[in-house]
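User: structure tokens for this one?
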Amino acid sequence: MPATAGTVGELLREAAAELEAAGVVCAHGTANWRDEAAAIVYHALGLDHAEVAAYARVLTADERQRCAALLARRIAERQPAPYLLGEAWFAGLPFHVDSRVLVPRSPVAELIAARFEPWVPPRARARILEIGTGSGCIAVACALAWPDARIVATDISADALAVARRNVVRHGVEDRVQLIRTDLYAGLAGSFDLIVTNPPYVPEGDLEDMPPEFAWEPRAALVGGADGLVLVRRIVGEARAHLAAGGWLAVEVGGGAAALEQAFPRVPFIWPEFEQGGDGIALVAAGDLPGDN
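Assistant:
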């Protein structure tokens, strides 16, 4: 491992080369080996990515060894870097993560930053529901994007809600984000202006072909049944009853766009394009969802 590099910049070059040679897959918040190396090294050294001068910083022997140990584990264990570091970034915000929850990486962050405009009209004191909150990153990001909104965030996993609670407190939004343990919509009262969800959508047969990094994540948060849409069909099919007039549903299905449209051929899903990469998020207005008019 790169334990002889003199500066941070040299270490990044060496580390990226070793990650590439080892066949490490960058799919949990980074897009390439250089970014992966930077995430590990800058976190280990407590550096700010915006600090240009840090690139030329001369490393101590202890710092080199500390970074080398983390990089060695990343290669040997194939554990996603956010789990090794205990932290992931989403929507420009840091979140605690561990193997009880998925690593945040949804392109919905871009929609949240824009407050879902132009589709979702501005609404004072909006009520937002997130189904399957996991780490709580989407719920927290929504709370910060809509300072006057009230967010209900649900998950069926008590372990996931423990992580979410830690992040809700970390970002000081516990007065506006309510965490509830439930199955999808069960027991929820009232209607919502926006429902956001990144449910399990990986077809069961696809999991065994995925890189080993994904085996660290909770299976229940990844796999959505034989076709990936077991929970998605329920979410879409029942959403209208929980949306206010003029409300919207945003559901992530990854590569399952065609399957979703086939499952609901009369629903005019909107598929936003993302400047920062990613796809597979369907938007649909309450009035276009299945259910009584």
